[in-house]
Fold Glucuronyl hydrolase.
Amino acid sequence: MKKITISLLAVLGLLTGFVPNTRIKTLFDRAEQQTRLMLSEVAAIDKKPSSNKPLWVSPRTLNEAGALQLVPARDWTSGFFPGELWYLYEFTGKKEWATQARFYTVNLEAEKMNAGTHDMGFKIYCSYGNGFRLTRDPAYREVIIQGAKSLSKRFKPTAGIIRSWDHHKEVWQCPVIIDNMMNLELLFAATRLTGDSSFYKIAVTHAKTTLKNHYRPDHSSFHVVDYDTLTGKVLKKNTHQGFNDASAWSRGQAWGLYGYTLCYRETKDPQFLKQAEAIARFMLDHPRMPADLVPYYDYDAPGIPNELRDVSAAAVMASALYELSTYGSGNARYRAKADQVITSLSKSYASPVGKNHGFLLLHSTGAKTFERDVPLVYADYYYLEALLRAKKLNEKKPLF
Ligand code: GLY
């Protein structure tokens, strides 16, 4: 009977794009094999590039020569590889993955004091946040709280935003990028862990200001909004990684979708759900969204269909859509679309096992001018997260 049920589910999956648990297990088996390869390659690299440079701690991508590119802890992508290891542990329950996850997580501890960037959530929540969720290790809790304190120092009350970048001071006075919505998860967690509502208030204020100033009438987002911190006025609206200032950079749209969905999870404020649904409509109904739901790197890239795709944007979107499918009513469409993305990624964009230095997915695009058509560690992270969410939904379990 069990066999019949499994094969019926597999056939149903082929016909509808539904992703059954048997398929998710196969994809995690592959992810384990690839990650073992990556761990062996990372172990073989000299982590101290030269005497005055910081240690390389996590893989990010492949460089132009096709070699594995590691980054120091301060890089915005350093938390994704430890996060993937925690996801492998969550799925398999194997001690092997918990041991590796702990090893790569603690490499990032010093970042909890780094108030020079907004990327605290990416770095600390993907690593320590998942670690704490799965182990309840009190040492991880402290790192999350300190990380949130450091991030809060970047909040500018008059403008009502958390400053994103300190670089390019000649271009922007106080730039905020849509990506910053992803860092709010860390602040919400810090309020839950401490009872101190100041983190929550900063997160909600940032989300509301961003909703007002980053979004266009069609519910697409600008990438960079520059603020005057003395008056709170918006000075400029630009892009840094998309096609141009007026365009819709695909990963930015996905960060916004994920960010407003998580804001709704944490606050139950209907304006955040409305915003997430409007962003989902922009993406899913866009005339230049390809049939396989893996977007071009920018919805307005002029050479479509001869432009690069961004698999990382698709993976972030899929994970967010799974969560969005659990809110409101009649959201079967979001789940079906997320399943369709996962089916596309796993069939047409996945690395063959044993290749590409252990990355899971190929064909991501970091930006218009760099990291073009490469594997990116955050595509892999959100892919595994999406698979875990799909499994929980299949089993009718809560996502959080
Ligand atoms: N800074 C995050 C990104 O490139 O999407």
